[in-house]
Design a protein that fits this description.
alpha+beta; Nucleoside Triphosphate Pyrophosphohydrolase; 7-stranded mixed β-sheet; two-stranded antiparallel ribbon; 3 helices; about 20% helix
């Protein structure tokens, strides 16, 4: 969905479970956004689609997960991207998700998020968090301390 300023609109999800956050390790392919970095699941909002519909569609496509409800957390503006951020509890085990897009996925701890990096079994090494994704998560953590024990 584009607006007058030609900004790209995306819908992304902060999924949390037992004080950890589900992130995707993006494919390490030149030319894609945040290659080889830990980032949120989500994606482009299609024409005529509401951000909430987009985030639910993207979660179904990327990890075969359909949360009952998502909560609007905020809207973050970057130079060329508007990120519509939603949050939801992850109510299934990691093993019950099907990774349909990306290099790896994992439940990252608050310490890993604060450090800005986490180990990936599939990559066989530590990989960085996307800078904007880390900022949004730190913001979320500061405003939702009760979710993070």
């Amino acid at each position: 969905m584009m607006n007058n300023n030609n900004l790209l609109h995306v819908a992304i999800a902060i999924l949390y479970r037992e004080g950890k956050f589900l992130l995707q390790l993006r494919d390490d392919i030149p030319g894609i956004a945040h290659p080889g970095k830990w980032a949120f699941f989500g994606g482009h909002i299609e024409p005529g689609e509401k951000p909430e519909e987009a985030v639910k569609r993207e979660l179904a496509e990327e990890i075969s997960y359909a949360p009952d409800i998502v909560f609007e957390f905020g809207v973050y503006y970057d130079t060329n991207v508007v990120r519509h951020v939603f949050s939801a509890p992850l109510t299934v085990e990691l093993k019950d998700l099907v990774l349909g897009e990306g290099w790896d996925m994992g439940l990252l701890t608050t310490a890993e998020i604060k450090a800005g990096k986490a180990y990936s079994d599939n990559a066989g090494m530590e990989r960085s968090l996307g800078e904007f994704h880390q900022k949004i998560l730190l913001d979320f953590m500061s405003k939702n301390e009760t979710l993070i024990d």
